[in-house]
Amino acid sequence: MSRPRLLPWSEDGKPAYLHTDDPHSVLSQLADQMEETQLSVGDDVLEGARDVLNDPEAGAPELRFAATRLSECLCDALRVARSRGTRLEDYEDRADEHEDEHEDEYGDEDEEADGDTTAQENDA
Question: Where are the alpha helices (DSSP H) in the chain?
């Protein structure tokens, strides 16, 4: 079983995790949708914050509001990045294990074939 997936929401301020190897489970799909929504909202907030920063008449309340929303979105984006990074590491680990199993199963035959090819190239 792979490592628990960090979910894009928390429970009472504590990280929430999902334990499953099924990326198509209902909860996995819900988490995927939530991550996409969080990143989309982050894009929208960033656009709005840029507008506020470009407005020379924007006051402290507007700037504080923009900074607060940006901070929230950054927290969400970092959580998504950590979650996806961990899942990518798990995927790469499984791919390496599969490659190692393949080499163990077929390694001797491949080495012999490579040796024959080299010998033929040298003889030619």
Answer: 26-54, 60-123
